[in-house]
């Protein structure tokens, strides 16, 4: 009986781990040693709109490019990142909502206001092995 339970447990674990896709997340244009990098990963339009992330990460700003290996199920995601330079745990903005701290999104070039889930989504599948997000600071 214990062998059957062990087999079932191992089968369940292998199903869940095989459904994950390993991805290298790289954050570029980090201001070195100037506050934590806050990463929010959204897996649907509704979680993106409500800011209820699927996964949150906090990374050290030890280099100008910071990388982290993550595992995500296949699907569409938006990755939103900011550098919390003053350590208050939130993205600081001016009176009209423009960020004062460095920020970035997937599929964002820093030339306009961030957009919808569909604009910024990336598809994660076995063909994707790295996602690069560049941080921008609006002056």
Could you give a short description of this structure?
Helices cover 19% and strands 36% of the residues. The chain has 139 residues and is of the alpha+beta class.
Compute the CA-based radius of gyration. Answer: 18 Å
Poorly predicted residue ranges: none
Find the structural class using helix and strand composition.
alpha+beta
Q: Which oligomeric state applies? A: single chain
Number of domains: 1
Range of helix content? 10-25%
The third-level CATH topology is Immunoglobulin-like
Mean pLDDT, to the nearest integer, reads 88
Cα separation of the termini: 66 Å
Helix and strand run: HEEHEEEEHEE
Instruction: Label the overall shape.
Output: globular
**CATH class, anyone?**
Mainly Beta
* Biggest beta sheet summary: 5 strands, antiparallel
Tally of contiguous helical segments: 3
Strand residues, percent: 35-45%
CATH architecture: Sandwich
The counted number of beta strands is 8
Describe this entry's structure for a reader.
The chain has 139 residues and is an alpha+beta fold. Helices cover 19% and strands 36% of the residues. The strands form two sheets. Strands 2, 3, 5, 6 and 7 form a five-stranded antiparallel beta sheet that branches. A three-stranded mixed beta sheet has the order 4-1-8. The longest helix has 17 residues, at 2-18. The chain is globular and about 65 Å long. The N and C termini lie far apart (66 Å). The model has no long low-confidence stretch (mean pLDDT 88).
């Amino acid at each position: 009986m214990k062998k059957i339970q062990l087999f079932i447990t191992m089968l369940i674990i292998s199903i869940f781990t095989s459904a994950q896709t390993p991805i290298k997340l790289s954050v570029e244009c980090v201001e070195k040693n100037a506050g934590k990098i806050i990463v929010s990963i959204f897996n649907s339009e509704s979680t993106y709109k409500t800011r209820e992330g699927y996964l949150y990460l906090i990374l050290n700003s030890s280099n100008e490019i910071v990388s982290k290996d993550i595992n995500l199920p296949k699907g569409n995601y938006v990755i939103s990142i900011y550098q919390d330079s003053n350590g208050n745990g939130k993205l600081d903005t001016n009176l009209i909502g423009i960020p004062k701290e460095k920020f970035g999104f997937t599929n964002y070039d820093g030339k306009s206001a961030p957009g919808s889930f569909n604009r910024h989504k990336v598809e994660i599948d076995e063909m994707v092995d790295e996602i690069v997000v560049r941080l921008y600071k609006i002056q």
